Every structure is written in structure tokens, then in C-alpha cells.
Amino acid sequence: MNATIAPSLLSADFARIAEQIAAVEAAGAQWLHLDVMDGRFVPNITWGPKIIGDLRKLTALTFDAHLMIVEPERYVDDFRAVGCDRITFHLEATNHAQRLLAHVRAIGAKVGVALCPQTPIAMLADIIDDCDLVLVMSVNPGFGGQSFIPRSFEKLRELRALVAARNPACTIEVDGGVHEGNARAVAEAGAQVLVMGSAIFGDHDPAAAVRRTRALLA
Ligand code: DX5
Ligand code: ZN
Fold first, then answer.
1. Is 7 in the pocket of ligand 1 (CB under 6 A)?
2. How far is CA 10 from CA 20, 139, 143, 210, 218, in A?
3. What's 117's domain CATH number?
4. Is the C-beta atom of 175 inside 6 A of ligand 1?
5. How far apart are CA 182 and CA 170, in angstroms?
6. Which tens digit of pLDDT belongs to each residue from 6-59?
7. Domain membership of residue 165 as a residue range
8. How many domains does the chain have?
9. Neighbour count for residue 60 (Cβ, 10 Å)
10. What is the DSSP letter of 176?
11. Tens digit of pLDDT for each residue in 150-193?
12. Which ligand is nearest to the CA of 7?
């Protein structure tokens, strides 16, 4: 199965951030998921390019930026400039997703589009060819520690079929409410990258949580 684990720093302890990143990296996480929130697209605020640029000095992990911000087109260049390898924006946050997908590729990042729980997979029909990644939100974005919305299983299966038919190179990522109890089922439904926040950084030993999850997915 071999799904990729992307620990989400949203649930990390920023007073010990270097240590926490090193721990999940040593335990075999491949990506680091960076949730950017603006208090407008979602009712919470996190960090911007300055913080991400500082974190970039700490690790070689793939930086997987998840932009939960309105008008993402205004900021993608800044996130690319500080070293985001992957930039995912919300389909609901821009009127011109196709143009933004092309632009992010042009500035040298892999590009993803994220869907909130209310947005059907069918909305991807005319842009799936332009996506390197699709992120299925399995909770309403904004906070860690919420419960996985069961309908997301069906969405992942639907997306897997669309990707197989139209763009097999496109990566399927899932975000929200993933933990050791459902990780395998989520991967079996089609998710190739599992974002996990509270399940990893809420554990007293984040490295052990990564190792246990990797074993579950092997
Ligand atoms: C929520 C964020 C997630 C968050 C997931 O809006 O996009 O990445 O960190 O947290 P958990 O894994 O705790 O649901
Ligand atoms: Zn996220």
C-alpha cells in the first residue's frame, strides 16, 4: 500500500518545533504538511511565508503547503519563494482555478487543489488534467482534532476512478480526522498521502506514532 504520511504542524508544539520536526523525519515521515489559515477562508489563523522560510532551514522533508486563504493567487509566489515544494489551494477560494493551477506549475512547484466536504468530486471534471494533487478534506477546514466525515470514503473512491481515467499521475491526499484506527481504510479507499495532525503531534511520542502508522500501512 505504501501511503505517504504527512504530519501536520498545526498540532505541533512550536516551542519545540525543531525537535518535533526532527523526530517525525527520523521516524520516516516523508512530507511536512503546513496549514496556512487567514481567518477569512477559515475561522482560524496560523502562519505565513516568514515562518515557513525559517522552518525550511530545519529539514529536507517535502513542504506540502495547504493554503486555506481567500485569493490564494495573491500569495502563491511568496510561498514558492520560501521553499514550498507543493502548493495546494482551495477550489472554493478562487474564481480562476485553472489559471492558478497553471501558474503554480510555471513557478516550479507541484500544484494541488483542495475540496471542502461540501464540494463534489464532479467539480474537478474540467481541471483534473492540470492537477498534480487533489486534497480531499475529510473535515471542515480550520482546526485539528475533528472527526473524519464518513462520506469522505466514497469521495476518495470516486476521485480514484477519475484520476485513473484522466490523470493517473495525480496524487490523492486526504486531510482531517485520520488516525491509526482508520488510516488503513482511508488508504484502501484511494488516499496516497495521509495528513495527520493530532494523531501524531497529539501523541506524547510523535516519532512512535509515525512508526506505528507506517507499520499499519505496510
Ligand atoms: C485542518 C487542517 C489539517 C489539520 C488536520 O483544517 O487542514 O491539516 O492539521 O488535523 P487532524 O489530523 O488532527 O484532523
Ligand atoms: Zn491541512
1. no
2. 12, 14, 8, 16, 26
3. 3.20.20.70
4. yes
5. 23
6. 999 999 999 999 999 999 999 999 999 999 999 999 999 999 999 999 999 999
7. 4-217
8. 1
9. 7
10. S
11. 999 999 999 999 999 999 999 999 999 999 999 999 999 999 99
12. 1
